[in-house]
Design goal:
Layout lengths: L8 H12 L6 H12 L6 H9 L3 H10 L11 E6 L2 H4 L3 H12 L5 E2 L5 E6 L11 E3 L2 E3 L4 H8 L4
Parallel strand pairs: 1-3
Antiparallel strand pairs: 1-4, 2-3, 4-5
Organism: Streptosporangium subroseum
Keywords: 2Fe-2S, Iron, Iron-sulfur, Metal-binding
GO molecular function: 2 iron, 2 sulfur cluster binding; metal ion binding; oxidoreductase activity
Length: 157
């Protein structure tokens, strides 16, 4: 059985650009599509996007680094997001944030050395009435206690 050849990163990115080039403010939809396809915005795509969109590399890099949604490194196998908005802060989110950082040995925006967990902070998960809120991958949890957070951080669970 033969496997199909994989597309190069450049071919993949140019294909994404071709799909979104005609959209107004095309860079943002393109970056979101790159994130969806690759899981992150590899720094190697910045010159490709700049060339394709007739922008400077600095312009593209500036957008990638300005928005927290665009990762420049491969995320962990699981992503844990802790809400840091006012409603969640009022009911213990700061304590959960400290606990998660201490337990995982990383700060927000980092991935554990073993590649298991990426820890992120967000400023609203839309779950304000039952904070503090934590999102693990695509699943949202409310009224998260320190004990529940420990269970959520257990990547073997």
């Amino acid at each position: 059985m033969t496997s199909l050849p994989t597309r190069s990163l450049e071919d993949q990115v140019r294909s994404i650009v071709a799909e979104h080039r005609d959209k107004r403010g095309a860079l943002l939809p393109i970056l979101h599509a790159v994130m969806e396809d690759l899981g992150y915005v590899d720094p190697a795509v910045i010159p490709i996007l700049a060339d394709e969109l007739n922008l400077s590399r600095a312009d593209v890099h500036g957008v990638v680094t300005f928005y927290h949604d665009f990762r420049q490194t491969l995320p962990g196998r699981r992503t844990v997001r802790i809400c840091r908005a006012e409603a969640c802060q009022a009911v213990g989110a700061a304590k959960l944030a400290d606990q998660a950082q201490a337990r995982l040995g990383v700060t927000f925006g980092e991935t554990t050395e073993d590649g298991a967990v990426t820890l992120e902070q967000v400023f609203c998960l839309g779950n304000c009435a039952i904070g503090p809120s934590v999102q693990v991958d695509d699943r949202l949890y409310g009224r998260v206690s320190p004990q529940q957070l420990d269970r959520l951080l257990d990547v073997n669970a």
